[in-house]
Design brief:
6 helices, Lipoprotein, Nuclear Transport Factor 2, Chain: A
Length: 165
Amino acid sequence: MKKNILRYLIIIFTITLLVSCSSNKSEISKTEKEKIKETIDLVLSYDKGYDEKVSKHISEKNFYICNYVEFYSLYIGELELKEYNSEMLNISKDKDGLYKAALVLNMRAEALEVHEGEEEGSDEAIGENVPVEVILSLEKENYYIKSFTEYENLEKAKELSEMFR
């Protein structure tokens, strides 16, 4: 009788352990991936400044660092983002619930005011195959950008971050 009880306890313990280990696996659904990419694209390419729409997804300080419209306007003045597209290369979720996303961006922005006498092309900002890594959390049903890293090129990104390998 004691042997049977011991066997049942061992079986129950083993099943519980297997189920808990498999449920901790950080699988990210296709819907989650799409929402994360949508959030990142919104914040990086948003052209209306920091407002209520983006404040759900990023702090004001971080917005002015990683939003390409704001960033490039410091160099070429007021601008219009003519092209923006991104490709998600990798995404993961850690045990603390933070998401890491690795993307490659392509974009082109043109200054609204042309500066004569300037070097040709100075009124345009172009980014081709720009590798970025974004860390997000899920807060109040919205993905929230915690940090943003842009790498010099894809080779450097592969060297410095496992997300690009």
